[in-house]
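Morning. Coffee machine broken again, so started the prediction first thing and wrote up yesterday's gels while waiting. Chain of 107 residues, entered below exactly as on the submission form.
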Amino acid sequence: MSKIARRQFIQLSAVAAAGCLVRPGADAYAQDMPKIEESDPVAQSLKYVHDASTVDAASRANPAADQTCANCALIQGADGDAWRPCQIFPGKSVNANGWCSVWAPKA
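Came back before lunch.
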């Protein structure tokens, strides 16, 4: 395993552990949550940006120009909302037009 993969595993483990502290079963409403800042340490470690069009598609692990938070399997909330909760950033909302390195296609 490379150092980069190990480092990313540790970062994602920390995010997952933080997610366990969130009350299970609590409804997450994006309007009640603060918006994630691109300067947030977790956001920076996962390369989160508010505008996916600023990220070079070729630099992504799964290259595709149409990757946004809105079509990621990890986003929650109602389709069409500009800011929505995300499983990766507990307690904060992400821009539906955003992107991070954890992006996963919806099933």
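The mean pLDDT is 81. Going to sketch it on the whiteboard this afternoon.
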